[in-house]
Amino acid sequence: DTNRGDWGGVHVNSGIHNHAAYRVLTATLADGSPALTPEEVAGCYYQALLRLTANATFLDARNKLVEAVAALKMADPAVQQRVDAVTDAYAQVGIN
To answer: Which residue, 50, 90, 88, is CA-closest to 68?
Structure first.
């Protein structure tokens, strides 16, 4: 059992979420510009983490991140492209 002593796989499975975060950090818009700056990504993850419950799933984390990005960029005309970049980043690692 690979999850023995790993509290249900928290360390084994963290790589999935880490890969999604990497993909968010490197996501680009159609014009090739970054979807979010590293500072924006960090702030949005922080806001998302504050809103997760103790039994949150990877999908819950993605959804809270999407909410944080939408709130941060609500006045930006490219807000939907930025949200799509986040959902695409998570879809690329199987979280959708």
So the answer is: 50
Q: Which residues pair with 34 in a beta bridge?
A: 28
- CA 16 – CA 82 distance, rounded (Å): 21
Q: Which of 28, 26, 29, 69 is nearest to 47 (CA)?
A: 69
**Amino acid code (one letter) for 15:** G
Q: What's the chain's length in residues?
A: 96
Collapsed DSSP state (helix, strand, coil) of residue 73: coil
Task: Give the tens place of pLDDT for each residue, 52-65.
Answer: 999 999 999 999 99
Whether the Cβ atoms of residue 85 and residue 30 lie closer than 8 Å to each other: no
